[in-house]
Design a protein that fits this description.
Layout (H helix, E strand, L loop, with lengths): L1 H13 L23 E4 L3 E4 L2 H12 L4 H15 L9 E8 L4 E7 L13 E2 L2 E2 L1 H5 L10 H12 L6 H14 L1 E2 L2 H9 L1 H6 L1 H7 E2 L2 E2 L5 E2 L2 H13 L3 H4 L1 H12 L6 H5 L4 E3 L2 E5 L2 E5 L6 H12 L4 H4 L4 H21 L10 H4 L2 H9 L9 H4 L12 E7 L5 E7 L9 E2 L4 E2 L40 E4 L5 E6 L5 H14 L5 H6 L3 E2 L7 E3 L6 H9 L4 E3 L7 E6 L2 E6 L6 E4 L1
Parallel strand pairs: 21-22
Antiparallel strand pairs: 1-24, 2-14, 2-25, 3-4, 3-15, 4-11, 5-6, 7-10, 8-9, 12-13, 13-18, 14-15, 16-17, 18-19, 19-23, 20-21, 23-24
Helix pairs in contact: 2-3, 3-5, 3-6, 6-10, 14-16, 14-18, 14-20, 16-22
The structure holds 6-diazenyl-5-OXO-L-norleucine.
The site of 6-diazenyl-5-OXO-L-norleucine has 14 residues, from loops.
């Protein structure tokens, strides 16, 4: 028997274990080839979910702008091009790698709860009303995107391109308009009820004939005016002038609690990223108030205890072990994670190798662990997904990865009158009541309870991976709520364990488990039937469901940088 094992191991070393493994890929969008989602270049690369945004970023890089300059220009452009997922009424995170200093900083410009917020603000007759945390004025948290981009410009810009020049392409897009593309038309349809409820939103997204449709011209004059003001007067004008006044007025008129004081107090935080290792690689990702980095590293640490490559990606044991690791990581998310400025978050413990070893030891190789049997005794609860991510490497080898959002499609659905700004519904990322799932089915605990000035817990995970020589290897991230963490994880496993090319790593079908609901969500066709059968016998509830995450990846290869935009969307990578 031992001899047999040795032969298998030797065969493995010389064959499938070292070779790239064939992955089951998704189909590209209609009219596109898979190859059109990939680009290669020597000097610099950007992968973004929109071709015009990528072009704008590329121009900045070609003019000698650094990764942060490109990130600022792309963020403003995306706020015009993707109002369903990001914008001046939202927030986000950015990870910046400074090659010369060999240092990464994490910038938090996610929304914060208004000063008048309180933990039970969504309870009506002691029951959480999640409609209130998801739609309309009460769902709005204080936007910090513009302050974040201003902070980035003041501290990390390359110095060759002016603030005005970074915003001008976005102003042109808003003023001259663009044609409504399929996903935007679909998003307007999906949220037409809430958009039509507010005249300020209806004015933007509805024409004479009803909701704007694919191919129609989309001009945003008010947004162009707002952007021009920010370009000419500096980012502070957003917080100390007519823009915040209009946001506060609109929100209050519709029953919300924002106040001008919320805007005066806006501050941006620089943080140390959370770091870990996986096999020979170093992982650098977003710390709390995102759960992304800590949970990603926790799951990778658990998986390091298992030889995934030996059995390959489409083996029931591999699928089982990855699921169990995700289940444990997401349970800790729900129990421990929140804004570390308000609650103590045991990031060191959660990301330690010893802890992962004990969790790995708790995994039975024969059967699934029911999620409820894992839950700690004292009541734990649940957590929450429309967003945008881009990844950039500049000619000097610096990198920026940023995920930005207004939360679900069109956020709260409420636009601030006269500004063109669609306001977020990020309050729904708090735990509105113990055990009540948010819009992503996530549950939270005390750690993520609402408090004035607190940041709601996020899953956004802009991430860098460095190779064993300390060189930047991967820059990536994604939208998708909790599926962000597992989309980043699936991509890293595909690259490191299954030796996929960057395009395959992103295009490969994905799996997801978030502790509760206790379901193994797989993209249709990911596993062969016999693997699904085996998993079901082991006690996994396998659910086929599409994966809407859109990974944007820049990867180092022997030939230079390769950019990949997720074939599940309409993005395009560009480099030179
Ligand atoms: O911060 C978070 O985790 C969520 N607000 C992200 C929302 C998201 O990714 C929506 N995208 N599909």
């Amino acid at each position: 028997m031992r001899k047999f094992r040795l032969i298998v191991l030797v065969l493995c070393v010389f064959s499938s274990c070292t070779k790239p493994q064939k992955l089951n890929l998704v189909d590209p969008q209609p009219g596109r080839t898979l190859e059109s989602y990939q680009a290669a270049a020597k000097s610099a690369m950007i992968a973004s979910p929109n071709p015009q945004a990528s072009q704008i970023g590329l121009e900045v890089l070609k003019k000698g702008g650094n990764a942060v300059d490109a990130a600022i220009a792309v963020s403003f452009a995306l706020s015009v091009l993707r109002p369903q997922s990001t914008g001046l009424g939202g927030g986000g995170f950015l990870l910046f790698y400074d090659k010369e200093k060999n240092k990464t900083v994490a910038i938090d410009f996610r929304e914060v709860a208004p000063l008048a917020a309180h933990r039970d603000m969504y309870l009506r007759d002691d029951k959480a009303d999640t409609k209130l945390s998801q739609d309309g004025a009460l769902a709005v948290a204080v936007p910090r995107l513009v302050a974040g981009l201003g902070y980035l410009y003041d501290n990390y810009a390359g110095g060759k391109i002016s603030w005005v020049d970074l915003i001008q392409p976005a102003i042109n897009l808003a003023e001259q308009g663009f044609k409504i593309y399929p996903r935007l038309a679909e998003a307007i349809q999906q949220r037409k009820e809430v958009l039509t409820a507010f005249p300020s939103s209806k004015k933007i997204f509805f024409g004479k004939e009803g909701p704007l449709r694919e191919g129609e011209a989309f001009v945003q004059k008010d947004l162009a005016k707002t952007l021009t003001e920010i370009a000419k007067q500096g980012w502070q004008v957003f917080y100390h002038g007519g823009i915040s006044w209009s946001i506060v007025n609109t929100v209050r008129r519709h029953g919300g609690i924002l106040d001008l004081k919320d805007f005066y107090h806006v501050k941006i935080h620089k943080m140390k990223p959370v770091t870990g290792t996986y096999r020979d690689y170093k992982i650098v990702s977003m710390p709390p108030p995102s759960s992304g980095g800590a949970v990603l590293i926790e799951i990778l640490n658990i998986l390091e205890e298992f030889p995934l490559r030996r059995r390959g990606p489409y083996n029931a044991r591999t699928a089982h072990v990855i699921t169990e690791a995700m289940r444990r990581g997401f349970m800790d998310r729900a129990v421990y994670l929140g804004d570390a400025r308000f609650v103590k978050v045991p990031v060191r413990g959660i990301t330690s190798k010893e802890y992962a070893k004990s969790l790995a030891a708790s995994i039975s190789l024969k059967k699934a662990t029911p999620s409820n049997s894992l839950a700690p005794q004292h009541g734990t609860l649940n957590e929450s997904d429309s967003t945008t991510h881009f990844s950039i490497v500049d000619q000097a080898g610096n990198a920026a990865a940023s995920t930005q959002t207004i939360n679900t499609l069109f956020g709260s659905g409420l636009a601030a009158e006269g500004t063109g700004i669609v306001l977020n519904n990020e309050m729904d990322d708090f735990s509105v009541q113990a055990g009540v799932p948010n819009s992503f089915g996530l549950i939270g605990s005390e750690a993520n309870a609402i408090a004035p000035g607190k940041v709601p817990l996020s899953s956004m995970s802009p991430t860098f991976v460095f190779d064993s020589d300390g060189r930047l290897f991967l820059v990536l991230g994604s939208p998708g709520g909790p599926k962000i963490i597992t989309a980043v994880l699936n991509t890293i496993l595909n690259m490191i364990d299954f030796k996929a090319t960057p395009l395959q790593a992103v295009a490969a079908k994905r799996m997801h488990h978030q502790w509760l609901p206790d379901q193994l969500m797989v993209e249709p066709g990911l596993y062969p039937e016999e693997v699904v059968e085996k998993l079901t016998q082991m006690g996994h509830a396998v659910e086929e469901t599409p994966n809407a995450s859109l990974v944007m990846l820049v990867a180092r290869t022997k030939e230079g940088w390769v950019g990949v935009a997720d074939p599940r969307g309409a993005g395009v990578p560009m480099g030179y």
